[in-house]
């Protein structure tokens, strides 16, 4: 549940910040009439994301067990690739995100501003699709459907609230630290999802070694114990892990975490904080 909460919080806050930047800039340039275009793009992006989540959840029904495991394993690998890309993309572009979005608005302001539908759709849709795919993979890896989804929903709800407070100027948080800490944690979560994807492919008889265990600590960490459930829900830890799963987990975590730490140090050296969303009140004063 905690892992999905943080996924929902991080991805939701990214989307909320994007929407806040778009809305604030439209007010700043004196074109509030085109806000409907932005909200239309946001609505379409949310619809696509929810549709993808529904397709992933219900689309596999009717398939054979082997086919379900094959689909689940491949999508877990894709989800890991998406979240890894997202973590490094945010480190690289966070400081220039506001400027980039304002430029996109300026480019698509001609005429009635219908191009803004595409701008909002692409900006929010990227976050939504990544969220739907990774949360689905994390839910499958945890072996549950209830609590992980509740955690993700709570994270998204909190992200919307924080995004609104930041937009109104009522709250300031260190976004650099937020994305750094959550990024490091998500790398561990992604490693668990990747290992579970390997497990699914072994169950589908696509990969070998399904019966060759690196360790089996089910006697110490029973899967149905509270701490077993906690480890499974947060880190996707499996008490009975095959050699293939263990090797893949280490082969992912070591280089990715190393690159992440090096990237964080590199960006800290620049010392330029992520620009907060301009609040509506100073914008109106500025226009006056």
Q: Secondary structure elements and their pairing?
A:
Elements: H1 2-28, H2 35-58, H3 65-93, H4 97-107, H5 115-142, H6 147-167, H7 175-203, E1 213-216, H8 226-235, E2 240-242, H9 243-270, H10 280-287
Antiparallel strand pairs: 1-2
What would you note in describing this structure?
Helix content is 75%, strand content 2%. It is mainly alpha-helical and 288 residues long. Strands 1-2 form a two-stranded antiparallel sheet. Helix 2 runs parallel beside helix 5 and helix 3 (65-93) packs antiparallel against helix 7 (175-203). The N and C termini lie far apart (48 Å).
By DSSP, the count of extended strands is 2
Percent of residues in beta strands: under 5%
Report the radius of gyration as a whole number of Å: 21 Å
- What spatial form do the alpha-carbon principal axes imply? elongated
**Helical run tally:** 10
Distance N to C terminus: 48 Å
How would you state the average pLDDT, rounded?
Answer: 80
Proportion in helices: over 70%
Please identify the structural class as seen in this structure: mainly alpha
One letter per element, helices H and strands E, the order comes to: HHHHHHHEHEHH
Runs in which pLDDT lies below 50 for 5 or more consecutive residues are 281-288
Q: How is the biggest beta sheet arranged?
A: 2 strands, antiparallel
């Amino acid at each position: 549940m905690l892992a999905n909460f943080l996924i929902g919080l991080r991805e939701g806050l990214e989307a909320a910040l994007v929407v806040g930047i778009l809305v604030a800039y439209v007010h700043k340039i004196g074109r509030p009439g085109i806000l409907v275009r932005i909200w239309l793009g946001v609505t379409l992006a949310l619809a696509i994301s929810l549709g993808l989540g529904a397709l992933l959840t219900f689309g596999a029904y009717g398939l054979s067990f082997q086919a379900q495991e094959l689909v689940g394993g491949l999508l877990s690998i894709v989800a890991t690739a998406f979240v890894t890309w997202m973590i490094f993309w945010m480190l690289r572009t966070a400081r220039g995100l506001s400027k980039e979005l304002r430029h996109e608005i300026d480019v698509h302001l001609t005429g009635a501003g219908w191009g803004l539908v595409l701008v909002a759709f692409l900006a929010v849709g990227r976050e939504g699709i990544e969220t739907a795919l990774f949360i689905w993979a994390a839910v499958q890896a945890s072996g549950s459907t209830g609590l992980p989804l509740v955690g993700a929903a709570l994270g998204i709800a909190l992200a919307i609230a924080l995004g609104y407070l930041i937009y109104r100027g009522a709250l300031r948080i260190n976004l650099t630290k937020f994305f750094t800490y959550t990024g490091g944690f998500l790398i561990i979560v992604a490693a668990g999802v990747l290992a579970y994807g390997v497990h699914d492919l072994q169950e589908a008889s696509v990969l070998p070694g399904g019966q060759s265990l690196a360790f089996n600590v089910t006697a110490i960490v029973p899967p149905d114990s509270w701490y077993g459930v906690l480890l499974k829900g947060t880190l996707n830890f499996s008490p009975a892990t095959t050699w293939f799963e263990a090797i893949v987990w280490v082969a992912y975590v070591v280089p990715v975490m190393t690159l992440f730490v090096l990237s964080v140090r590199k960006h800290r050296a620049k010392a330029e904080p992520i620009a907060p969303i301009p609040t509506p009140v100073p914008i109106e004063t500025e226009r006056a």
